[in-house]
Design a protein that fits this description.
mainly alpha; two-stranded antiparallel ribbon; 2 strands; 1% strand
């Protein structure tokens, strides 16, 4: 697949037609791009899951304290969350292909170095910083960018499907990775994942296209040809400028606050404290882990369904309903826990699984509605708030158990936070109001803004690509 683009004057793409004429559109290419993106997201999700499985083996092999190993995990979570908005800005500057391919390559490098480590600080550097940054580059901001660039219709559905792909990597491959560690050791699992990450990185670099205009196509469902936006320099500065400008608005804090509650009520308490809380009620750790795997499986259906609904329903009300139902289920959980998986607890697993990641598509949709061209970068910062909320509640949950001797106050308190998040979601201004002005990227020296179009017919002859236009 070859890609040719116009020169500095933004001439129409080779194989494309003028904006005022219908462009020949492929109904299959956008879905192929989404499938390739899903493969990258699955790989990144598996990298995030594998880190949690290494705590026990590293403790046994090296004698490191669990707190030292957990510190490396914390570094990974912070790098993953903080790097998301910068990754989104880099995608606007250099393209998704380079950023995501490079990120997965970084996961491979981090995995290769991890099998050679001999000190706890090396685990924090190799797995926490390198693999954390690499997997963060191929996470939710990437899913949002693919849906934004390649789809006009079915954006919500595609966002849900790509989010579900990350869930598949996180939870469906959990027993597979556990089996590999049990049979062949943790090094085999880490190295195997690194090889897969490098292979997928190669596929991304070879096959992924950053924008439909790169191949003379329209986004799926678009009636007109959409030219590729001008690439700008200073991606990191743009990420910071977007944060400064969006942080001056109420919608940003409403979205960041609700998504922080999302992280607190999922990664923060459910994925960190459910197993020990169930064990306090006499349940075996194996059964508790199996219930968490079921939650992960229902995540897939819930996220895809949420994406489908986001195309059809007021996303503010949809988000409010998710948080309200999640809060109610968490408040009821202390009464459902026991030594066995009773039918009531299985109902909780199904409901919570359907709601767990369902908040992502409507949150992305609200970012798109309120922040326009800066939506993916804004969502990166909103996702950083998600990770912050998760980390704080993970820490607070342990403190609650130490003080009260039970996790019950944590479940009820987090349920109340979800109720507040439901109210906040309803207060986000309706779509159609004034958008926050976008932060325009600074023009690159290799490419400038197109001049005003002349009335004569456009020149469709191939032009030499500029350095910033290499696909």
């Amino acid at each position: 697949m070859t890609t040719k683009r116009g020169s500095d004057t933004q001439s129409p793409q080779v194989g494309a037609v003028p904006r005022n004429q219908p462009a020949p559109a492929s109904r299959h290419l956008p879905w192929l791009m989404a499938a390739l993106a899903a493969l990258a997201l699955i790989t990144a999700g598996a990298a995030g899951t594998l880190g949690g499985l290494l705590v026990g083996p590293l403790h046994r092999d090296f004698g490191w304290s669990r707190s030292a190993i957990s510190a490396g995990m914390l570094v990974g979570m912070v790098v993953y969350g903080a790097g998301a908005p910068f990754a989104a800005a880099l995608m606007d500057r250099f393209g998704m292909r380079r950023v995501v391919g490079g990120g997965l390559g970084l996961v491979g490098v981090g995995a290769g170095l991890t099998v050679t480590m001999s000190a706890a600080w090396q685990f924090a550097l190799y797995w926490g910083v390198l693999a954390g940054a690499g997997s963060g580059a191929a996470a939710l901001a990437f899913a949002a960018a693919v849906a934004e660039r390649w789809f006009v219709r079915r954006r919500g559905l595609v966002t849900g499907m790509l989010t579900a792909a990350g869930v598949v990597g996180q939870f469906v491959f959990l027993p597979v990775l556990s089996e590999v560690i049990g049979r062949f050791g943790w090094r085999a699992a880490v190295l195997g994942l690194g090889v897969v990450a490098v292979a997928v990185a190669g596929m991304v670099l070879l096959l992924l296209r950053d924008h439909p205009a790169d191949v003379g196509q329209r986004p799926y469902g678009a009636s007109e040809f959409v030219p590729r936006p001008v690439a700008g320099a200073g991606a990191a500065r743009r990420a910071v400028r977007v944060l400064v400008r969006s942080a001056r608005t109420g919608p940003f804090w409403l979205l960041a606050g609700t998504f922080a509650v999302c992280g607190a009520s999922t990664n923060g308490i459910m994925w960190t404290h459910f197993a020990p809380a169930a064990h306090d009620h006499g349940m075996s750790v194996t059964l508790a882990a199996s219930l968490l795997s079921l939650v992960g499986l229902f995540n897939i259906a819930g996220t895809i369904g949420s994406g489908w609904l986001s195309d059809r329903v007021d996303v503010r009300r949809l988000l409010a309903a998710y948080y309200a139902l999640r809060g109610l289920s968490l408040c009821l959980l202390p009464m459902l826990l026991g030594a066995t998986a009773r039918p009531q607890l299985l109902v909780f697993v199904v409901v919570f699984g359907l709601l767990d990641v369902a908040t992502v598509p409507p949150t992305i949709a609200l970012c798109r509605q309120r922040f326009g061209a800066d939506a993916t970068v804004v969502f990166g910062w909103v996702n950083a708030a998600h990770q912050l909320g998760a980390g704080l509640l993970a820490l607070l949950g342990g403190a609650v158990r130490d003080v009260f001797g039970s996790y019950d106050p944590m479940w009820v308190g987090t349920g109340a936070l979800c109720g507040a998040a439901a109210l906040f979601a309803l207060t986000v201004p309706r779509p159609g109001g004034n958008r926050v002005p976008a932060v325009r990227p600074q023009a690159s020296t290799a490419r400038t803004q197109a001049p005003t179009a002349r009335p004569q017919a456009p020149n469709l002859r191939p032009q030499a690509p500029s350095p910033c236009d290499t696909a």
